[in-house]
Amino acid sequence: MQLLQVGPTFPKTPFLISKSSPNGGVVGILSSKKLSLLYDTNHSLASSHRHERCKWASLNQSISSSISTKAASVDAGAPAISPVTAEKDVLAALSEIIDPDFGTDIVSCGFVKDMNIDESMGEVSFRLELTTPACPVKDMFEEKANEVVAKLPWVKNVNVTMSAQPAKPVFAEQVPMGLRTISNIVAVSSCKGGVGKSTVAVNLAFTLAGMGARVGIFDADVYGPSLPTMVSPENRLLEMNPEKRTIIPVDYLGVKLVSFGFAGEGRAIMRGPMVSGVINQLLTTAEWGELDYLVIDMPPGTGDIHLTLCQVVPLSAAVIVTTPQKLSFIDVAKGVRMFSKLKVPCIAVVENMCHFDADGKRHYPFGRGSGSQVVEQFGIPHLFDLPIRPTLSASGDSGIPEVVADPQGEVSKTFQELGVCVVQQCAKIRQQVSTAVTYDKSIKAIRVKVPDSDDEFLLHPATVRRNDRSAQSVDEWTGEQKLKYNDVPEDIEPEDIRPMGNYAVSIDWPDGFCQVS
Ligand SMILES: Nc1ncnc2c1ncn2[C@@H]1O[C@H](COP(=O)(O)OP(=O)(O)OP(=O)(O)O)[C@@H](O)[C@H]1O
Questions:
Q1: What's the ipTM?
Q2: Which residues line ligand 1 (CB under 6 A)?
């Protein structure tokens, strides 16, 4: 076992923790004289979910082996099993369902909520709270959850309801107020103009809405806003809420839209050297409400507007749009590098105007391969091809996006695949960030995942609390420790752990202290 020292040490009580391993590990505190073990994950309650599941599985077996007795007692109206066992039983069954994106079972993913069991009546109800209402496998989850729980010998009736997490960014504290009810912000970007970026942004947004998500589009192209041409809402003007000093987005088919093109008279005033500031203001003062996805149609290029926008807006991911010409590769590479510097993952490349079919043949007027070159060279996992289609151009001009006008068509199918990719990748990104540091109540330890690795550390909560280096715990001038060892109860547990930025977490403690580590 490898012992690792983490973080600044508390006077007299530097702490050592072990790397957790599949075989378990030891969490301990090294006082000046001795190492006192707090718990050993091999032998105590400190078992992982996997161990817990084994226990449930064996419980399951013993339940199954006495089906007849229990069925008889259920019929007689007597409780078949204890409430605790019944809940473990249901959770064990549900943990057979694996989320294909996270590769983890839905219990460990934290999807199971509001469990209600009447074991004497054999009735089970619970809610599956998914990361997004647009989850492409939600029907499978619902069906499977019903199936696996109904199979339990004592269960007579299962009631599963489906819901999605409330819309909220992962780093809520760092986000401008106006964007704090948006879960994912996806930039659609290209380095050159006219490659079809707005076409992709608009059709992607309406695809996500069609999948059940709450969606908004922000057209950040001040000099050539395309959104007003591509959609045809009845009311085409952004309204102001003078009391709240906010902007009310335009609505088209339930998707919220903000574009300079809808600014009416204000457009002339808003154009000018303060473009970046105006973009940020428009974006952050819009009343977006709760959104699962805000799609940003970025202006073409990689200039100052992009940098300021990316600094203000916590982008979840970027989709790059390009055309097949060899020259496009150089442009796209610039865009990928910009997002990489800003730590925004590029999740997909859309190669637009790839080909058209005529005379029974497929033609590639701009050549082939620049999209796949981007995917290979930069390790972007997904590539989508869009053909040249007169209908795509016509629907853009008519104000009805192609995916709305022809939802069963070939182009809509490609957008459906792109939509699924965006939903899955955003969910993965959120999960990775939000599970980097978690509290494991079963072993009373804070788990810290090492990025890009399966390794993780276990930290003792009281030790983490005692090692706070903020002004509340340490005198800033003298360096003297204000927080005394005994001020922190040995069994203190964090109430909430939230990620802050890429490297920090904030921890809420029961004494009201919020620690940033
Ligand atoms: N696959 C396609 N087939 C046919 N027409 C297309 C296709 N993609 C885009 N177009 C058309 O090409 C024109 C430019 O597309 P779009 O406005 O989406 O590009 P853009 O990259 O956003 O341009 P800009 O940077 O100027 O905003 C539009 O008229 C659009 O309808």
A1: 0.98
A2: 190, 193-199, 221, 224, 226, 300, 352-353, 386, 388-389, 392-393, 396
